[in-house]
Amino acid sequence: MRILHITDVHCGLEPLHRVLSTESFDIVVVSGDLECVEAAEELEPFKDRAAAVTGNVDDISVRRYLQSLGALIDGRVRELGGLRLGGVGGIDHAGDVMALRSDLSKAGRLDVLVTHHPPKGVLDRTFMGVRVGLKSIRELSLMAKPRVHLFGHVHESPGHQAYEGIVAVNPGPLRDGRYALIELTETDVKVSLRSLT
Question: Are 57 and 33 contacting, i.e. CB atoms less than 8 angstroms apart?
């Protein structure tokens, strides 16, 4: 399974169009901050293989559009390409965490957790050196035990690292040409951080 992970588009239509039209992928995952409906509209041709959460700067129009595509996973679990994905958006992360915790207590673990905010202590350092990840996201990830945790929000902390047996990926903002490709096999997770520049 080849996952294209993009985040923090911030209405950067040109890099978004370029990545979607040139990369080969099975599913596309957006971890928030499309920022404008025009960016969300770029997902239309991929709606059957797209999953997205909202970001903290996305408004209700972006949320509604993603919902109309069937791509929105804020506070819910969705099967896509044989994978179980769960999402926590940036608009109501506390409510989404509670909803997912409830689902997971009945339905078990996830393959991929998609959040806008990072978990506390993982790829969450701002340019001032402050850690801004959320404790509630980390606790949820430890409960869900996904193989992969995809997020964004902290533009200055791109990278990938393992924590508690989970591969975390923050590709950096697509607005700046950054994205990630994740190869998921039965036994392995390979992350490739990419740049359009």
Answer: yes
Which one is the CATH code of 2-195: 3.40.190.290, 3.30.70.1520, 3.90.10.10, 3.60.21.10? 3.60.21.10
- Helix axis angle for 93-107 and 135-144, nearest 10°, is 20
Q: Alpha carbon of 17 to those of 55, 133, 160, 175: distances in Å? A: 19, 29, 24, 11
121-176: pLDDT as tens digits: 999 999 999 999 999 999 999 999 999 999 999 999 999 999 999 999 999 999 99
Amino acid 180 reads: A
Single-letter code of the amino acid located at 87: G
pTM for the structure as a whole:
0.97
Separation CA 44–CA 124 (nearest Å): 31
End-to-end CA distance of the chain: 26
Provide the token pair at 132. 């801004």
At 136, give phi and psi (nearest 5°): -65, -35
Among the listed residues 153, 174, 191, 186, the one whose alpha carbon sits nearest the alpha carbon of residue 11: 174
Following DSSP, what letter does each residue of 55-106 receive, concatenated? Answer: -TT--HHHHHHHHHHT-B-BT-EEEETTEEEEEE-SSSHHHHHHHHHHHHHH
